[in-house]
Design brief:
The chain has 88 residues and is α+β, with helices and mostly antiparallel strands. The chain is built from three helices and five strands; from the N terminus they run E-E-E-E-E-H-H-H. The termini are far apart.
Length: 88
Amino acid sequence: MKKIPMRTCIITKEKLEKRDLLRIVRTPEGKVILDETLKANGRGAYLKKDIKVIEEAQKTKALERVLNVAIDNNIYEEAKSKCIKEGN
């Protein structure tokens, strides 16, 4: 039986499967990206695939604290559109 990787959402503190989360990464160059592969190099943080959770992260600047970098609104918009696409 294969082990299912579990990660914790930084907003809800829920432990979920990696595929149920969005990963936002600060690359070694300092750029912030939405990691589609879930394997990009750099410091990562996970958010539940839920628009309310993404809005909460934006409002509280939780991602900025965790990744220790300013985050452009485009990252949040990209994350929201990915949630909408997947029906979350």
